[in-house]
Amino acid sequence: MTRSLPLFALLLLGACTVGPNYAGPPATVSDASGRSGFVRATDAALTPAPGLARWWEGLNDPLLTRLVDDALTQSPTIDLATARLREAQARLTQQRIGQLPSASANGTAIVAELPPIQPDAGGTSASFYNLGINASWEADLFGGGRRTVEQARATAGARQADLADAQVSLSAAVAQAYVALRDVQARIGLSDANTRLQQRQLDLTRQRFAAGTASRLAIERLQTQLENTQADAIPLAAQRDEYLNQLAVLTGRTPGTLDATLTQPAPVPLPPQRVAVGDPAALIARRPDIRAAERQLAAGTAAIGVSKARELPGIRFLGLLGLGGTSPEKILDLGNLAALAVPSLNWSFLDFGRAKAATRVSEAQRDQADATYRRTVLDALQDAETALSRFGNRRQQLGQLVQVEATAARAAALNRQRVAAGTATLIDQLDIERQQVSAASAVAQARAGLTQSYIAVNKALGLGWTDPVSADAAPRTTAADLSRSAR
Fold first, then answer.
1. What's CA 126's distance to the chain center, in Å?
2. What global pTM score does this model have?
3. Which one, of 132, 174, 162, lies nearest residue 258 by Cα?
4. Most buried in the list 60, 79, 160, 418, measured by CB within 10 Å?
5. What's the pLDDT score for residue 325?
6. CB 158, CB 295: distance < 8 Å
């Protein structure tokens, strides 16, 4: 009974875990998480149903879908986040294994020829052979090892969330670049149409000037308008090339690889009639940067226990088991078995407050993680509410501009009747058609703006991530595949 008391006391100490237990993230946004919907989600197209993870499929553009999928499987950004996750998972495994005893085997063979003690005496030889096992184990008396594992597990969870956040950002970046490309291609086409109309106006005015029915001032005015329109079109080509390069790099390719696939203009994809946005509570639970901040807070809480355990004593057990003899055949003689067990106590009780200072550092870092989490949640809610408001306003703006375009089309049609009846000139008709092109350009930009706001909504909601899969399981798409898809 007396011999079992130290072991019993050791077990009691081993059940002790210093440091605060993690109680979950702070409830700093309980007013938001308890709402049934977002404050700014007042547009009729926004519904409180849960959002779709692969939200870009709602745009019904197969080429865009292929580009996003390519980016998620081929981008170095995803590879970097995946490698960091693997590193964190390996460190977690290291910490778990580190709590177990360690053992090593060794063998020794010593053969020595010794010089004679007397001048006339012969030399002597000595031999020694040994096989042994060394073992060591540090008892986790105050839970420092368990807190280390807990910290590593939380860090691995943060890296998992970082990977999801990379997927969210990357899918949104691809969609934004794609919509911007289609928008600038449409503006190039409308600018060309506007240039042709202005050139016809200028040519007709020159004919009238030759006939004496138009002034030189009218020619100069139209020439200035034409040159300004041509000058405004020059940067559009540079923007188009910029988006082509960006899409190639985002999908893990070199600039220029996708030119043949994407050079042909295509309409800007429009959002679905109903956009599912969920509620603030779902946003807080799903958005990856919030999840990463929460896991960092958990890791910071566990780090306090790690630091506190270093203030207290530790016990390490060393063991030795060996067999030896003066010849190889005596090694397996159990009569030569030697065993040694040595417990050692380690305690830096006189460190002039170094360990306590380290604990205060960990506590301050935990408080920083707490503040970072609360700020991340508030920033996420702000992003979502702003994106939802902008989406609703964009829809209203597009509806108004579509009406303007329809009015301009009716005006052009009515004036054609006047031209046919001889009550209006062709120059007047060309001027009205220019106004129609201007209205169409405004509508095209508004369509792109609406789709960009749809992308921003899904990014703010934290949509677009999935659990990591093996890179070998996802087939890679080539430029030729994209070209076939576009056809």
1. 67
2. 0.83
3. 174
4. 160
5. 63
6. yes
